[in-house]
Design brief:
Length: about 325
């Protein structure tokens, strides 16, 4: 492969890859924007209705009663252990949290509330997945001095699913995040979240993006087609130029050979030592010399034009009368 051809194809291929990459990021960013704004009005409605449903409660109606049952039963015991034995405090607090989490999972009543909001009252979606999350549970034995009981240890990013089957929690699916605390001594601070994802979410977003996707796909197909058409035409032109060069070289040889033979033969006729000169022979040899010189000049000009070389105009002063006389003599010879 010639260096010029390789450079041409490399530059064209790099340009094509850059264009496809730009189109990919355009589609991806459009998807991200649609994802962030998807279901946003519906989420605001669900947030308002859910917040009303858990007013003066935790996680779901009845959730506070479940938590308070275990917390008040163990509060004083945990307070004494916190001052005396940290190991026993961690053990007892974990046992209490396990009991609270199990009771919350069993007593979860959020599904009927969500169904009434999403399917019945507002008809926001035909089907959906949800996750009710307990993110953090802290207790305080002194005012605003909270001790984290959950998540356990170093699992700061762990979230306990109290209800629902939505396992992949995305920020775009978060409907509510509430923090409930009290400024009193021996109080709790609880952070819980609600995630909701409509069924066929990805397909719904892709359908809204279909015009953008189709336009990008059409532009990519067009550019790829133009790329291959251009490369194909370039190789055809290159092959044609090579054939033209071979033809010019061949025709130059085929034309110059007889022309050279005529010139040499004419010089032989003009040589007085080899052939006796006569009055009629000299004008004929002069005509042959002039016409072969003129023919050779015209042929060179034709080749230069065929090769697309820059033409030069060679100007020389000539006597018109003398030229006319030569032309008349050329055609007067029998």
């Amino acid at each position: 492969m010639k260096p010029t051809s390789f450079r041409f194809r490399t530059v064209a291929l790099i340009g094509l890859l850059v264009f496809i990459t730009v189109q990919f990021f355009l589609i991806y960013n459009t998807y991200r924007v649609n994802l962030e704004h998807f279901f946003i009005k519906e989420k605001n409605i669900i947030n308002d209705e859910y917040s009303k449903a858990v007013t003066n409660d935790l996680l779901f109606p009845g959730g506070r009663a479940i938590i308070d049952t275990f917390y008040f039963r163990n509060r004083n015991h945990l307070d004494s252990l916190h001052l005396k034995n940290q190991m026993e405090f961690k053990k007892a607090s974990r046992q209490m949290m396990d009991s609270i989490l199990n009771a919350l999972i069993k007593g979860n009543t959020i599904k009927p509330i969500l169904d009434s909001i999403i399917k019945i009252k507002y008809k926001l979606a035909n089907d959906y997945k949800y996750a009710l999350i307990l993110k953090e549970f802290d207790i305080s034995f002194k005012k605003n001095n909270y001790i984290q009981l959950f998540p356990y240890g170093d699992s700061s990013n762990y979230k306990q699913i109290v209800g629902g089957h939505l396992l992949k929690l995305l920020p775009s699916d978060q409907v509510t995040s509430l923090t409930i605390s009290s400024a009193n001594d021996k109080s709790t601070k609880i952070i819980f979240q609600l995630y909701i994802q409509p069924s066929n979410k990805t397909w719904t977003i892709l359908k809204t993006m279909m015009p953008t996707f189709l336009l990008s796909l059409a532009s990519i197909v067009s550019i790829v087609s133009l790329f291959f058409i251009t490369v194909n035409n370039w190789f055809k032109q290159k092959k044609l130029a090579e054939m033209q060069t071979d033809f010019i070289n061949s025709i130059s040889h085929e034309f110059n050979t007889p022309l050279t033979a005529i010139i040499i033969a004419n010089k032989t006729l003009q040589n007085e030592k080899m052939i006796p000169q006569s009055e009629k022979l000299k004008p004929i040899t002069d005509i042959i010399q002039r016409q072969t010189t003129r023919l050779n000049s015209l042929f060179k000009q034709t080749l230069n034009i065929t090769k697309a070389n820059k033409a030069f105009l060679n100007k020389q002063p000539e006597k018109i009368a003398k030229k006319k006389k030569k032309i008349v003599n050329d055609y007067k010879i029998n």
